[in-house]
Design brief:
four-stranded antiparallel sheet; alpha/beta; globular; Rossmann fold; Elongation Factor Tu (Ef-tu), domain 3; six-stranded parallel sheet; about 675 residues; about 45% helix
């Protein structure tokens, strides 16, 4: 029986570690790991810089009358860049839909998944490089190496978790996107720790030494403690557990992280403790910057127009049975469309801070949030609004409750650099897409405030965009009122621009899926209908009824389907058809017959349809055929198209896959003349 002579002192954890001949030392492999990570960050930084240069070039070119299509690459360099981007997008956007009965699993897109696959390969190679996994004599070497690679990952994990971090600044990505990588790198850290633990246990098991080490060795005890806390951090961060209570998750996550760092500090050797100091310093810096920004944003002493101790006062207005509008008038901070803030109101919801998308633009001179009441703080906000708002005098402007804000956060590529835009929103997802659309319209009008251009990194004023296609899917017609005034203003502003000879157009369609007043046949779909050309309005009489031939055409232009997203979200909505042609005359859904003609339905038959938005905004009963909408927009575009989607996971996945498929079918930037499609997706849920 071969004996194992311990070549290392485990109590030193590498202080006198001597590897086998030809095997790189432990600190060298840590350097190799960070060389690859740094290279990846560098590539993302270069891509971000190129995107910024391209944006500036496009907007400046739009001012030159000799460049009618500034969103179309012309130089060889940018043509190569566009082709490379198109190839990467076509496979990186795609996500495989998985369904089992009524359970739908939404996997991440291929792009981020491949990044994490490469990361797993990197740490695996760093752990086992030039070591023999079959030689029991080298198991200690693997145990040491894996421990060193594990601790070297800590700074990266903390960098990816910060709200204001260097990686986000360099790569142009918001923390809410980096947080996905944060969670998966933490899981990879646990994977490395399990390798570290497994190989040491194998060595000890050879001599029945495991229990002795656990009972008598303090170093082993501290290592097990650190590994156990890390396992809890990973398990408690899983979406089903994290979603049970966001407030409790955040508190326990910070406490557990501190416990993990303390246990790790006493477990690793002195020469490796720099990998603990670094993440602690990064974390402290992030907290310090956030604290300074919060103090500046919230205390009236820093703002002349603010009164009282805290500068932000919020009013809470109930919109329907489950949504609240929170408004902060004359906010002391500025922001950009598409950003969000963390809102805290300790009087209403103590010790909780939630991220909410900003549903207004700086020109409104107010911060506005549309919040869906779920549980916890959002439910308390809604109940407070129901209790307080009806008692407020309508003729006065109530001061509201003092609140704290943290932000703004998030970033998105300037959409005004694209020739055509497609916005797809589900329910409160319009809080993200409506401000982005309005921001482009403000650029057309030329009324964007100078404050948005103060930063040198911001692109110049102006817009390349010529056409906007806006799609909003809601369950009930009453939800349209959330943004009714904003949408009406967009239609009016664009009409004014077109009358002045400006070649721009906006097409807005609202799909209602679960409203009997709209889908039961009692209220016909009224308003103007667009023809296939951009910006042209074709009048259709509200009393016009479809002929038999038109009804036949309708049957071929709509599909009665129950999509994955519909099945999970509609919960009994009968109007699940997908409208493939908005210009066809469609008959309304007949939900009432499926619901056994409720007694109340007879009283609503005589009700006249009420105009809730501008008649040039289409109200449709059903669900949009996203792929057709994107394809039609792309076929008419003279330059690159941007698709922005915000809503339930099913809608987001469908939109991404549709854009990837259309890009592949049309062979964009591959010699066909077809232009690329960029997708920005926002999914409901916490980051």
């Amino acid at each position: 029986m071969a004996s194992i002579a311990p070549r290392h002192d485990h109590s030193g954890m590498g202080g006198s570690m001597i590897m086998a001949p030809g095997v790189p030392d432990l600190f060298y492999m840590q350097q190799i790991f960070w060389a690859f990570v740094g290279t990846a960050i560098g590539v993302a930084t270069i891509a971000n810089i190129l995107n910024r240069i391209l944006c500036h070039h496009r907007i400046i070119s739009s001012r030159n009358k000799g460049s009618p299509t500034p969103a179309k690459p012309r130089s060889f360099f940018f043509q190569a860049h566009a082709t490379t981007s198109a190839v990467i997008r076509e496979f990186s956007y795609y996500s495989t839909p998985i369904s089992f009965r009524n359970i739908h699993i939404y996997l991440p897109p291929v792009g981020p998944t491949l990044v994490m696959v490469f990361y797993v390969v990197l740490i695996t190679v760093c752990v086992f490089y030039r070591l023999n996994t079959k030689d029991l004599l080298e198991f200690e070497d693997i145990g040491y190496r894996s421990g060193f690679i594990a601790v070297a990952q800590l700074p990266l994990i903390v960098l990816l978790s910060g709200k204001r971090n260097i990686i986000g600044f360099l790569s142009g990505m918001g923390y809410e996107r980096l947080s996905w990588f944060h969670r998966w790198t933490a899981r990879c850290l646990l994977f490395t720790v399990l390798i570290h633990m497994g190989y040491w246990l194998t060595v000890w098991d050879k001599y029945d030494y495991i229990l002795v080490k656990i009972k008598e060795d303090p170093l082993t005890q501290r290592g097990i403690a650190a590994g156990s806390v890390l396992a809890w951090l990973v398990i408690s961060s899983l979406a089903p557990i994290r979603g049970l209570s966001y407030e409790i998750f955040v508190i326990q996550h910070v406490i557990s992280w501190i416990g993990f760092v303390v246990a790790l500090w006493f477990h690793i050797p002195d020469e490796n403790r720099v990998w603990v100091w670094l993440p602690l310093g990064i974390w402290a810096f992030d907290r310090f910057v956030r604290a300074v920004c919060m103090i500046y944003a919230n205390f009236s002493i820093f703002h002349k127009k603010s009164t009282g101790f805290l500068g932000c006062k919020a009013t809470f207005e109930p919109l329907d049975e489950s949504h609240t509008r929170i408004t902060i008038a004359n906010p002391p901070v500025t922001w950009k469309a598409g950003q969000h803030m963390f809102l805290t109101c300790h009087v209403v919801a103590p010790l909780s801070s939630h991220p909410f998308t900003i549903a207004s633009i700086p020109e409104d001179e107010k911060l506005e949030f549309i919040v869906r009441a779920k549980r916890g703080a959002t439910r308390r906000f809604f109940k407070y609004a129901e209790k307080v708002y009806p008692s407020l005098p309508s003729s006065t402007n109530p001061k509201g409750r003092s609140v704290l804000i943290d932000g703004p956060y998030s970033t998105i590529r300037p959409l005004r650099q694209f020739d055509s835009l497609v916005f797809v929103a589900g329910s409160t997802g319009a809080a993200f897409t409506v401000p982005l659309m309005r921001d482009v319209v403000q650029q057309w009008i030329g009324t964007t405030p100078e404050t948005s251009q103060r930063l040198g990194l911001s692109p110049p004023a102006g817009a390349v965009t010529r056409h906007i296609r806006f799609i909003w899917v809601v369950k009930r017609k009453s939800s349209v009122g959330w943004f009714g005034q904003q949408l009406d203003k967009v239609v009016h502003d664009v009409e004014t621009l077109r009358n002045e000879g400006v070649d721009v157009a906006v097409e807005i369609s609202i799909y209602v899926t679960c409203d009997d007043l709209l889908t039961s046949g009692k209220s016909s779909i009224t308003g103007d209908r667009r023809d296939s050309s951009r910006g042209q309005i074709a009048q259709r009489s509200g009393s016009e009824s479809p002929s038999d031939e038109q009804k036949k055409d309708f049957s071929t232009s709509t599909e009665e389907v129950t999509s994955q997203s519909s099945a999970s979200s509609s919960k009994g909505c009968c109007c699940t058809r997908v409208i493939t042609d908005e210009d066809a005359i469609t008959s309304p859904c007949n939900c009432a017959s499926r619901r056994k003609q409720e007694a109340s339905s007879s009283t609503t038959t005589s009700e006249k349809p009420k105009t809730i938005v501008d008649p040039r905004i289409a109200l449709l009963a059903g669900r949009p055929h996203v792929r057709n909408i994107i394809r039609k927009t792309a076929e008419l575009a003279l330059g690159e198209v941007a698709v922005v989607v915000c809503g339930p996971p099913g809608l987001v996945q469908c939109t991404r896959n549709a854009a990837a498929a259309i890009s592949d079918d049309r062979a964009v930037h591959k010699g066909t003349g077809a232009q690329g499609i960029y997708v920005h997706a926002e999914t409901f849920g916490y980051a």
